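User: Please run a holo structure prediction.
Assistant: Happy to. Please share the sequence and the ligand.
User: Here you go; the ligand is manganese (II) ion.
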Amino acid sequence: MKKLIRLKDTRIGLMTILVVLFWLKTLFAYFMDFNLGIENVFQFLILLINPLATTLLTLGIALYFKRSRFFYPVLGAIHLINSFLLYLNVIYYREFTDFMTVATMTGYSKVNQGLSGSSLALTNLHDVFYWLDIVIIILLMLFRKIHFDPRAVNHRLAFSITSIAILIFGVNLSLAEMSRPQLLTRTFDRTYLVKYLGLDSFTVYDALKTTQTDHLRKTATKSELEKVKAFTDSHYASPNKSMFGVAKGRNVFVIHLESFQQFLIDKKVNGQEVTPFLNSIYHGSNTYAFDNFFHQVGQGKTSDAENLLETSTYGLSQGSLFATLGSDNTFQAAPAILNQRAGYTSAVFHGNVASFWNRNNTYKNLGYQYFFDASYYDTSGDKATGYGLKDKLLFKDSVQYLQRLQQPFYAKFITVTNHFPYDLDDEDKDSSFTTVDTGSDSVDSYFETAHYLDQSLEEFFTYLKKAGLYDNSMFVIYGDHYGISDTENKKLATALGKSSDDWTSFDDTQLQRVPLMFLIPNSGGNGGISHTYGGEVDVLPTMMHLLGISSKRYIQFGTDLFSSDHDQVVAFRNKDFITPNYTSISGVIYDNSTGKKITPTGKVKAELEADQEKVSKELSLSDSLNTKNLLRFYTPKAFKAVDATSYNYSDGLDKAISIEKKLGSKSTSVYSENNNKSTVDEYFTDAPEATSASTDSNRIKITNPDDSGN
Ligand code: GP9
Ligand code: MN
């Protein structure tokens, strides 16, 4: 104790005390206020050390000041700033379940709002701990219990301390990389950065990123937009007259089948169909399905698919566009276009935390009016898996909200149960379904979770038919990206009746097909399975044309799949591409009909070179459009820029009900049309969790992205 008392009277001693105090305060915040989702001891250890490096580094700056009248104020100020930043985030987190970005602090961000007037209400009794040490130190100074040490710390020592801090940071970073590869490049959720590197590092990293983006945007000019527009204009494909407006005025259900690949369709294992319900839709006479449709996502996985589908632009070459640019970018996306051109209400239903992939912010810029995230559902006990509410429950528990939306609506459901590692609780397994035995756990269970997803859809559709929603809707059903990664494909090969011995990159590429179906009930039975080649970027113009809305005035990289002008060269995010006849992987060309490498000559060579050039140009123009935020320079005819600040997702149900009330007899919600009676009871699910009482434990945790199978 005496030693400790003496410690405070030396400069190094006082600094050490502050380092320890701030370290403890940060850990206190980690465990008491933030929900960082610690999954294992390793992550716990990283969490313990991550505040140390930056605390030592920042407080260590004071040691370079020789005079005590500089040393003490600088040391105090740094401790104060650190504590302030921490506390600000604690308060912010309580309101937004997210961390403060530099853009928020500087008031630059449009959506990631600053704290509202109610911040006082967000304080908590235990907040005393964030300030107690500072009060005590000030008192000790006032009562001269801390003696100012006139002896300057020599620069060698100061430098050693800085070096130690940097070393600890290095260790921290490598441990983080081990637990979570590509932490800094894949950018998915701010929570990850805080969890692995701490709050200070997150803030610095975010500041660097913001400066980078800012710079790109400031130097951007309108002429760059014109280049992009010239490109998309020249590739525009006019609608197929027989398809234009086929689904005009209908509700749109976008059903995002997580990690769902095309090979699951019509697939039988042990004599049983894996997805009988989806197969029946696929073959239905009112379904327009595509069997050469490819995902085009990059590191942003689900979020990239969402971006491709709803903006008809590509994701980024690195990281997730939603996470990197979603908070501030200008979009001309499906929800806004459908709302402005045809009065659609827009909503997303997804049982994971809102901050995942920065959806909470990005959706506002896309123009989504409602976002029903995990907070709207009971995700306790075994109702959820790592990525959120189980699919059967997601569909069932969404109905209470869905029935309140004004029609026509554009409603997107993002499923999660069919996500790596494809864990399905025993209670959710269909006892009459036996999966394959390939020797790969993920491949084997993939069929089981896909089967579960299929059942959940059947239950949902049964309800929709009862509630009268089926006939006046269009269903856009798609798989977002692969579920089985290239490394597991050889194991998968046997289940597909192929040999793994001569498996090539060509075969991997073949498996990047995902389903795409437009189901338009009672539309004349002219559906069928088209072999047209296309990718996710083509969905928006195709869908708009089905709804009878011209896409001509918008900047979109995709083209209508039904159009005779549709371009069948499908670009992958890494500049590889596939055409109906050839596949190009890292510049190596394969013949699709034989799967063998070829050396093209003459006309074919010239054609493929032109295709490659187009693919590269398209990707780079899309990148320039998004990273430089060029759409802010462009206002399509009659388009009103989305005002992200006008959306608030916290009281969705109340908002929908009050609109219903205001409209009175003009309300078109399912609830109103059902004589103000709920349709919730019409829903049947066999999910055992639906009837179980809720428990406190919450299974949704921020899942490690390595789990996404990369
Ligand atoms: C998370 C879910 C999964 O909310 O959408 O995302 P993914 O890992 O597939 O990108
Ligand atoms: Mn996904």
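Residues 188 and 588 are 32 Å apart (CA to CA).
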